[in-house]
Amino acid sequence: MIALGCDHGGLELKKTIIEYLESKNIEYKDYGTYTDESCDYPVYGKAVANAIVNGECEKGILICGTGIGISIAANKVKGIRAALCHDVFSAKATREHNNSNILAMGARVIGPGLALEIVKAFLETEFSNDERHIRRINMIED
Ligand code: RB5
Predict the structure, then answer these.
(1) Residue 60, CB half-sphere, CA atoms under 13 Å: how many?
(2) What global pTM score does this model have?
């Protein structure tokens, strides 16, 4: 189950991502926002982060204007590793090396075509399980 969240700046891109997930029969839960009315990104960043740490969802995707504020908010929740990615290489690498559980993107930074390639890389790449990466992740959590 994929948790989705965005602020008003990320709403249109979230809709594009929902279309993609539905076309692939990938299950998701949408934690808002649901309208283009101006709203506060920490609310949605934390809602998605909490859905992951409490086990409702395995991974999350967060979108705001830049992806910065919403990823900062999500990373305040213990157990969350939210990666702000605007290229495919980083999305793949952060899954392999950081076992990131949230992908954050900025809808005012990249277009929908690239965003979907990034989503695909993030969802399809497994954690390497290498000892050195596990050790480093544990050092973050401590
Ligand atoms: C909202 O205007 C904007 O600040 C927000 O979407 C995001 O870019 C914050 O980091």
Answers:
(1) 36
(2) 0.97
- Closest of 21, 19, 24 to residue 2, by C-alpha: 21
Question: Which atom of ligand 1 has the smallest separation from the CA of 106?
Answer: 8
Which residues, including other chains, have CB under 8 Å from residue 28's CB and lie 6 or more apart?
Answer: 1, 2, 3, 4, 18, 21
What is the rounded CA–CA span in Å between residue 8 and residue 125?
29
Is residue 133 annotated as part of the catalytic site, yes or no? no
Minimum-distance ligand 1 atom for the alpha carbon of 8: 6
Pair 4, 28: CB distance under 8 Å: yes
Output the CA 128–ligand 1 centroid distance in Å. Answer: 32
d(CA 2, CA 20): 12
pLDDT in tens, 98-136: 999 999 999 999 999 999 999 999 999 999 999 999 999
7 CB less than 6 Å from ligand 1? yes
Q: What residue ranges define each of the domains in the chain, with the CATH number in brackets?
A: 2-141 (3.40.1400.10)
> Within its chain, how far is the Cα of 127 from the centroid?
15
